[in-house]
Write a structure and sequence with these properties.
This protein is mostly helical. It contains five helices and three strands; from the N terminus they run H-H-E-E-E-H-H-H. Helix 4 packs antiparallel against helix 5.
Amino acid sequence: MGKINWLAIIAAVVAGSLIGFLWYGALFMDKWALANNLVVEGEKVIKNGVEVPANNLSMLWNSLSMVVYAIFMNWLINKTGDKTWQKGATLGAIIGAVNWIGHYVNNSFAHIDGSLALIDGSYSFVLWTVMGAIIGGWRKD
């Protein structure tokens, strides 16, 4: 696994969560909801005319996945020796771009509006780039 800077892992997880709140909240919430056939009315979320019950489990899974992403990025940076913020960001951008392509292909087969792949894919790109920069640049060794 190599050396782990747990402060960098925590910072990357917090940054990833903030990016998610920004992306799916302030910036693209309405467009993302529309592309997913969701209607938000105050605290209610309606999909295909049926109210979706509130569920915090998704947020828990998101938090756990952020930790896994950060630990994976740390492992990858240790393996490649890319121990600067620039190289970490580049490595993250490559992973994010591959994710973006995956969103596009999956949505194309599901006949989902391309705007969803643009929103989700660009989020992946920014998320992985920022995580890579933080973990690559904040080294203990």
